[in-house]
Automatic annotation (TrEMBL):
<dbReference type="Pfam" id="PF00145">
    <property type="entry name" value="DNA_methylase"/>
</dbReference>
<keyword id="KW-0949">S-adenosyl-L-methionine</keyword>
<dbReference type="InterPro" id="IPR029063">
    <property type="entry name" value="SAM-dependent_MTases_sf"/>
</dbReference>
<dbReference type="GO" id="GO:0032259">
    <property type="term" value="P:methylation"/>
</dbReference>
<keyword id="KW-0808">Transferase</keyword>
<feature type="compositionally biased region" description="Polar residues">
    <location>
        <begin position="296"/>
        <end position="309"/>
    </location>
</feature>
<comment type="similarity">
    <text>Belongs to the class I-like SAM-binding methyltransferase superfamily. C5-methyltransferase family.</text>
</comment>
<dbReference type="InterPro" id="IPR001525">
    <property type="entry name" value="C5_MeTfrase"/>
</dbReference>
<keyword id="KW-0680">Restriction system</keyword>
<dbReference type="GO" id="GO:0003886">
    <property type="term" value="F:DNA (cytosine-5-)-methyltransferase activity"/>
</dbReference>
<dbReference type="GO" id="GO:0009307">
    <property type="term" value="P:DNA restriction-modification system"/>
</dbReference>
<protein>
    <recommendedName>
        <fullName>DNA (cytosine-5-)-methyltransferase</fullName>
        <ecNumber>2.1.1.37</ecNumber>
    </recommendedName>
</protein>
<feature type="active site">
    <location>
        <position position="75"/>
    </location>
</feature>
<dbReference type="InterPro" id="IPR050390">
    <property type="entry name" value="C5-Methyltransferase"/>
</dbReference>
<keyword id="KW-0489">Methyltransferase</keyword>
<feature type="region of interest" description="Disordered">
    <location>
        <begin position="286"/>
        <end position="309"/>
    </location>
</feature>
Length: 426
C-alpha cells in the first residue's frame, strides 16, 4: 500500500515503459491507462493500474499524496506514421494547456474544433499538474512524446517555471542511452528540488575514449548485440526465410506459421551451409543472448554482428521499418530505426542482402517477432505481453524504452546509473 507522499502517477501508462525501471528502483507507480490489452499486460507484469479514461478521471484525488508525475500522451495524432493531424490541432492544444493552467476547463469546446480528437490528450497532463500544484506537488515531472510535440513541452515548461519548478525540454536520441534503436523523443523534465537537466549520454555512434574532460562513451548498441545474433554455443545461423539466430524458435514469426517443408516448396528457404563452410564474424554477447541462453560457454570476441558465409552466398540481414519506398532499412550491425506499428502493424521485417552478386536466390522477408521488438525497446526478454498480435505490437511501438526512462528518472530518485549496471533487457 502506498502511503504519504510517495505516489508516482503515470498517465497513459501503456504496458509499462516507465514502470519497469521504477520497479528496479524499488518504487511502484500507479498507471492510468484505457487500452484493454495494455492493462492486461501491466496486470500480468504485476504493475498497479487504474483502467480509466485519463481525460475523465478526477485529477484532485491524487493531491497531497504525489511525489512524481509521468506522462506519455498517445502519439498517433502527431506521429509521422499517421496523418499528423495533431500538427493542425496544435494551436487548440496550446490554448487548452493555457486555459487549464489558469483553472479554466475549455476542453469540450476545443475538442469540437480538433481534426483529431486524440490531439487534445496532450493537454491532459496540465489538468493533473494544476490539481497537484495546489498541494505543492509533485516534486518532479517527466514527460515524453514524439519530436513534433516539443513546442508544447516548452509551453508546459514555462508554466512550471512560473510555479517554482526548474524545467528542461529537448530532443533525446534513445541510442545515446544504450537503446538499440535511434528513437528520438521530445522530453520534458522538471523538478522543485534540483536543477532539471538531461542525463549525460552513455553511448555514441562511434566509441569515445575517456578524457580529462569526462568519461568516454560506448558505441551505440546494435540490433545484433541486443538480440544475441551470432553468439551461440553452436554457431549455425539459420538462413531460413529471414528468421536468423535472433528470430527465436519459430522460423516464421509473421503469424502465418508455415512449416519448413512449406518454405522449401515455396522457394523461400535455403538449406543452412555445412559447419565447415560457416565463418562467423566475432560478436559480443548482448542482453538478448544472456536472457535466452544464460552465461554458459565462452564469449566470442568483441564485434556487433554475425556474418554467415557459405560456398554459394554471403548474406547480411537488415530491419526494414515498413513497406513504403522511403522505409528506414538498418543493418543488424546498427541500432534499429524508430519502431512503430499501428495501421502498418507488424510490417517491420527482416530482409536479406547478398554481399556477393552471384546469389541464386534471396530469402523472403520475414516479419519481426513481438519478442524481438520488445527487446529492441529494452523491455525484459520475458515480458508478459498480452493480446492479439496487433495489440502486442501496438503496445511495444507506443511505449517509452525502459532503458531511456531509467536514465531520465534516476536523478529524481537519487539513483546513479552507468552504462554497465542497468541492463534492463537481461
Amino acid at each position: 500500500m502506498i502511503t504519504g507522499r510517495d505516489l508516482v502517477i503515470d498517465l497513459f501508462a501503456g504496458p509499462g515503459g516507465w514502470s519497469v525501471p521504477l520497479r528496479r528502483f524499488g518504487i511502484r507507480d500507479v498507471g492510468l491507462e484505457w487500452d484493454e490489452w495494455a492493462c492486461k499486460t501491466r496486470a500480468a507484469a504485476g504493475l498497479l493500474t487504474i483502467r480509466t479514461d485519463v481525460a475523465m478521471y478526477p485529477a484532485g484525488i491524487f493531491a497531497g499524496r504525489t511525489r512524481g508525475f509521468i506522462a506519455s500522451p498517445p502519439c498517433q495524432a502527431w506521429s509521422m506514421a499517421g496523418k499528423r493531424l495533431g500538427l493542425v490541432d496544435q494551436p487548440l492544444v496550446h490554448q487548452a494547456v493555457a486555459d487549464l493552467a489558469a483553472g479554466r476547463d475549455t476542453r469540450e469546446k476545443l475538442l469540437g474544433a480538433c481534426r483529431d480528437e486524440r490531439s487534445l490528450l496532450a493537454a491532459e497532463p496540465m489538468r493533473y499538474l494544476r490539481a497537484l500544484a495546489s498541494a505543492g506537488e509533485p516534486d518532479w515531472v517527466a514527460m515524453e512524446e514524439v519530436p513534433d510535440v516539443l513546442p508544447l513541452w516548452k509551453q508546459y515548461a514555462a508554466i512550471l517555471r512560473s510555479w517554482g519548478f526548474s524545467a528542461w525540454t529537448g530532443i533525446l536520441n534513445s541510442a545515446d542511452y544504450g537503446v538499440p534503436q535511434t528513437r528520438k523523443r521530445a522530453i520534458l523534465l522538471a523538478s522543485r528540488v534540483r536543477t532539471a537537466e538531461p542525463p549525460p549520454p552513455t553511448h555514441a555512434r562511434f566509441a569515445e575514449p575517456e578524457t580529462l574532460f569526462g568519461p568516454g562513451r560506448e558505441r551505440w548498441v546494435s540490433m545484433a548485440e541486443a538480440l544475441g545474433w551470432g553468439a551461440t554455443d553452436r554457431p549455425v545461423p539459420t538462413v531460413c526465410a529471414g528468421g536468423g539466430p535472433g528470430g527465436g524458435p519459430e522460423p516464421f514469426p509473421s503469424g502465418a506459421r508455415k512449416t519448413l517443408a512449406d518454405a522449401r516448396d515455396r522457394g523461400t528457404w535455403t538449406e543452412p551451409p555445412a559447419l565447415s563452410d560457416i565463418v562467423l564474424k566475432p560478436q559480443t554477447r548482448g542482453a538478448g543472448w544472456t536472457a535466452r541462453h544464460g552465461t554458459r560457454g565462452n564469449s566470442p570476441a568483441s564485434g556487433p554482428a554475425p556474418t554467415c558465409t557459405s560456398k554459394a552466398t554471403h548474406w547480411t540481414w537488415a530491419l526494414r521499418s515498413n513497406n513504403q519506398p522511403n522505409a528506414t532499412v538498418r543493418s543488424i550491425e546498427e541500432p534499429a530505426g524508430t519502431l512503430f506499428f499501428g495501421h502498418r502493424a507488424n510490417e517491420c521485417t527482416w530482409v536479406a542482402h547478398p554481399d556477393h552478386v552471384q546469389a541464386q536466390e534471396t530469402p523472403a522477408p520475414i516479419r519481426i517477432t513481438a519478442a524481438e521488438a520488445g527487446t529492441l525497446q529494452t523491455f525484459p526478454a520475458d515480458y508478459p505481453w498480452q493480446g492479439t498480435k496487433g495489440a502486442r505490437f501496438s503496445q511495444i511501438g507506443n511505449a517509452v524504452p525502459p532503458r531511456l526512462a531509467a536514465y531520465l528518472l534516476a536523478p529524481h530518485l537519487d539513483r546513479t546509473l552507468t552504462a554497465d549496471d542497468f541492463t534492463l533487457a537481461a
